[in-house]
């Protein structure tokens, strides 16, 4: 976990007894856009958890599924985060080859092609933007030419690389930031490479 400033209550407005339930729903990677549009996402909620979170049974809502692809590479797009202002973050490009590298973006309403804004770490071979908070700070990871992943947060328009200091400085090591909240706390994952064995 990386903090921009001293943390405050990470779940304001959510009763303490329901915070775990809400976090579980948040993990469902839901991107609900303005006017009831479900944008490139899948809602995964179990009946009891959903009922506990809402506290009552609501009438069934109608949703419209809309494809939102950045035409810079329509073969592969992923929408990975959305904030309370309906700004979506993600990336295009499968990363499978040099013709389709991962390239990050923000997508602002009304979600037309002219509303995609490229966001890539300078000097990176690939970038994935995976989270955005309500302030507009983003988080994700970028990849070097040798496959090493580095976490980043873009605070006030400035990229900051954030890596676990215990991660080995070796090709292929992985540091990825996967979320950032309004308090300036970012979290993610890392993979440490296994030790090399001596060959006989």
Summarize the structure in words.
This protein has 200 residues and is mainly beta. Helices cover 8% and strands 34% of the residues. The protein folds into 2 domains: 16-29 and 37-66, no CATH class; 68-183, no CATH class. It has 2 helices and 14 strands. It is globular and about 50 Å long. The relative contact order is 0.14.
- The radius of gyration over CA amounts to 18 Å
Distance between the termini: 40 Å
Low-confidence blocks of residues = 5-53
Give the rounded overall mean pLDDT. 77
Strand order of the largest sheet: 5-6-7-8
Number of strands: 14
Structural class: mainly beta
- Strand percentage: 25-35%
N to C succession of SSEs = EHEEHEEEEEEEEEEE
Quick one: overall form? globular
Number of helices: 2
How would you name the oligomeric state of the polypeptide chains in this document?
Answer: single chain
Strand count, sense and closure of the main sheet? 4 strands, antiparallel
Count of spatially separate domains: 2
Helix fraction by DSSP (H/I, runs of at least 4): under 10%
């Amino acid at each position: 976990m990386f903090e921009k400033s001293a943390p405050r209550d990470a779940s304001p407005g959510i009763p303490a007894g329901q915070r775990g339930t809400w976090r579980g729903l948040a993990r469902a990677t839901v991107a609900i856009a303005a006017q009831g549009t479900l944008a490139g996402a899948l809602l995964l909620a179990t009946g009891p958890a959903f009922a506990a979170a809402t506290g009552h049974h609501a009438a069934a809502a109608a949703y419209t599924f809309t494809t939102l692809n950045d035409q810079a590479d329509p073969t592969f797009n992923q929408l990975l985060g959305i904030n309370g202002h309906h700004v979506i973050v993600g990336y295009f490009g499968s990363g499978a080859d040099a013709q389709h590298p991962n390239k990050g973006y923000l997508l602002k309403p009304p979600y037309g092609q002219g509303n995609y804004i490229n966001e890539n770490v300078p000097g990176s071979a690939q970038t994935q933007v995976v989270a955005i908070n309500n302030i507009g700070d983003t988080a994700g990871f970028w990849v070097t030419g040798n496959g090493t992943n580095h976490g980043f947060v873009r605070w006030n328009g400035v990229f900051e690389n954030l890596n676990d200091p215990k991660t080995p400085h070796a090709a292929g090591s992985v540091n990825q930031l996967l979320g950032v909240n309004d308090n300036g706390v970012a979290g993610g994952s890392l993979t440490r490479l296994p030790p090399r064995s001596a060959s006989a």
